[in-house]
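tl;dr need the bound structure. longer version: we got a ligand (adenosine-5-diphosphoribose) that a collaborator sent over and nobodys looked at where it sits. i said id run it. heres the input, straight from their email, havent touched it
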Amino acid sequence: MKKLEVLKGDITKIEVDAIVNAANSSLMGGGGVDGAIHRAGGPAILEECRKIVAKQGGCKTGEAVITTAGNLPAKFVIHTVGPVWNGGQKKEAEKLANCYQNSLELAVKNNCKTIAFPCISTGVYGYPIAQAAEVAVAAVKAFLKENESVEKVKFVCFDDANFEAITFEAG
Ligand code: APR
């Protein structure tokens, strides 16, 4: 059964155990998918982000933290911080791969069987779409090969360019 699914849509509407948020290191919300998740999920998400920041400080690039999903159909939101594109010579690919890897590890630790990702870093952070798709799909496929417990990973693309790029990489 195909564990990888690619769809076009709004990740705040997706009913999976965990949706992943393309956050920033402050974890205090922002625009893009970060803004959409906090708006739709409500203040409970930010409250838990505040507690995490109080305990550990912010979230480093490539790292991930988990909170409630508040009013969203999902159970959890996994917040990860993607790399800002800086020409490709600053280990952006490695950091982006870490976002997917660490988010999936955290999802498994919290018994999540179904996870949805946005196309991390391809908006405000300017990561070229085709290159980001290649890194994202490779990282998820590598993880799925090692981890039986994950049943489904959905890439929820907000625009055609990302949808086509991820679909192409997913094969
Ligand atoms: N559902 C799914 N994907 C979405 C949604 C949504 N509701 N809204 C936006 N996206 C897509 C964008 O089209 C883009 O392809 O998410 C991808 C990531 O774009 P951004 O949200 O801009 O995130 P990113 O590029 O990782 O930049 C992160 O932006 O919003 C701020 O606080 C955030 O500082 C952080 C930065």
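gonna send this back to them w/ a short note. The pocket of adenosine-5-diphosphoribose is lined by residues 10-12, 22-24, 30-36, 82, 118-125, 156, 158-159, 162 (CB under 6 Å).
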